[in-house]
Design goal:
With 374 residues, the protein is of the alpha/beta class. 20% of the residues lie in helices and 17% in strands. It has helices at 2-6, 30-38, 40-45, 58-63, 138-145, 158-163, 231-239, 263-273, 299-311; strands spanning 10-11, 14-15, 71-76, 79-84, 87-91, 125-127, 150-154, 171-174, 179-182, 185-190, 210-214, 219-222, 244-248, 281-285. It has a 6-stranded mixed beta sheet with strand order 3-4-5-6-7-8, with no helix packed on it. Strands 9-10-11-12-13-14 form a 6-stranded mixed beta sheet. β6 (125-127), α5 (138-145) and β7 (150-154) form a beta-alpha-beta unit. α7 runs parallel beside α8. It is globular, with a radius of gyration of 20 Å. It starts with a helix and ends in a 63-residue tail after the last helix.
Length: 374
Amino acid sequence: MERIRSSPHFRDGVFRNPGGPTRIRPSGSGRSLATAYADKRARLLRAPSGRIPVHATTLADLARPPAGGPRLTWMGHSTVLAEIDGRRVLFDPVWGERCSPFPFAGPRRLHPAPLPLAALGPVDVVVISHDHYDHLDMPTVRALAGTDTLFAVPLGVGAHLEHWGVPAARLRELDWHESTRVGGLTLTATPARHFCGRGLRNTQHTLWASWVVAGEEHRLYHSGDTGYFDGFRDIGAAHGPFDATMVQVGAYSEFWPDIHMTPEEGLRAHLDLQGGRPGGVLLPIHWGTFSLAPHAWAEPGEWMRDVAGEAAQPVAFPRPGEPFEPAGRLPQDPWWRAVSGPLAHPWRDARSAGDTAGTDGGGLVGGPVVSAGD
């Protein structure tokens, strides 16, 4: 608490977001929000129509060392195993069946974890972005507490981990702009626009963060959860450019525009981090594993293909558990289309209205062509 109270980001008893006031509660009327969730067609699109294709050979692929630069393995949602400069970093590990305080209720996984946590092998450091249930999973942390891995967490989050059995000596608890060294890597907690809390009473006494991981040769960025803000430019100027960014682009809504990014905003954030121009590889995260918003479960992937294609920005679309190297061949197959209902493209502009369905253009993927205004 002494460190929390002395933080420049903690004022009037709570942590504050960068860039002024941030709405952390749903805006609009409760009736409008309930209507958005109750819409029958939208409800059907919030779950896959079949089994999400999970990469079948994750364990064997990870047993082989990367060919050269970093290697990323998206396990689903915001969980990513990053291999960089000879070290292994595990971001926001969630192997639980539900992201909820209850084992019998709450959002359930849309696909299984690509491999058992015990099969993952040694990890040098686990990085946590904030304490929400879909990023900080108690059973997963308790399992990792039995290893010798270190944990890098935002200020205040360490109390959760200590309570669950992680020794204080294995914690690196950072405020924004603070760094720690782990096996030749420099990990820096950087700002994000979000909030914290694991109960109905949100005390804002734990910090949320994005993270920069810098090795001797390569650099990675993980956004955690965040709304779009001008700070991405500052992070890029101080720590970039990056070989790859892992950017949240799911669970967005007009009801909470300040705390999660749309794919279009996620692309803008990536470009800001890269100095304002396309560069590196963008890995979209925070989608495809838990249905946490009114939008279709596969919409973030489809939308990201659109906006990244228009910007000529390389984007990776791996199946859960599919390792890839940013410097190598990127997974590009729109795998979600095989198990998704027809997705409208209302974000496309008028010049795309004549594109055919099933391509990267406008209309409905898997359905009839519609105008951009539909």
